[in-house]
Write a structure and sequence with these properties.
The protein has about 120 residues and is an all-beta fold. The protein contains no helices and 9 strands. It is elongated, with a radius of gyration of 22 Å.
Length: about 120
C-alpha cells in the first residue's frame, strides 16, 4: 500500500444533487366571487428549490389578497383571499435549483355571484 502519494479520495454525496420535482401538483378550480382559493404543491430537490407563483406568466407578489406559505408537512400554498373575476387565469408554480427547473399549472375560474331578484 502506498500512503505517501498526493492523491485524495473524493466522496460525492448525491443527496445534495437532486433536480427539482413535484410530488403533488395543483388542480383546476372554479369558485364564486368572494371565496378564498388555495393552490398547493409538494416538491423535492437538493438544494431546496426556489419557488415562484405566476398568473398568466406574471409573477404574483405577496399582498393583502395573495399570501404564500410553507406548511409543517412541506406543502407550499398560495392563497387568494376574496377571489375576484380578474383572478381568473392560468396559474403556474415554477421551482428552480442549480440542477434544473420544473413547473406545473392549473386553471382558475372565478364566477360572478348569483344576484337575488327583488319583487316590488
Amino acid at each position: 500500500m502506498d500512503f505517501g502519494g498526493p492523491e485524495t479520495t473524493k466522496i460525492v454525496d448525491t443527496r445534495f444533487k437532486e433536480p427539482p420535482a413535484f410530488q403533488v401538483t395543483m388542480n383546476d378550480q372554479a369558485v364564486i366571487e368572494g371565496q378564498e382559493v388555495t393552490m398547493s404543491v409538494r416538491l423535492n430537490g437538493q438544494p431546496k428549490p426556489m419557488l415562484y407563483w405566476l398568473r398568466d406568466r406574471e409573477t404574483i407578489k405577496t399582498d393583502l389578497r395573495h399570501t404564500m406559505r410553507e406548511t409543517k408537512d412541506g406543502t407550499f400554498e398560495m392563497t387568494i383571499n376574496s377571489a375576484q373575476k380578474s383572478d381568473t387565469g392560468v396559474y403556474t408554480c415554477k421551482i428552480i435549483n442549480e440542477y434544473g427547473t420544473k413547473q406545473c399549472a392549473c386553471k382558475l375560474e372565478v364566477k360572478g355571484t348569483v344576484q337575488q331578484g327583488c319583487l316590488f
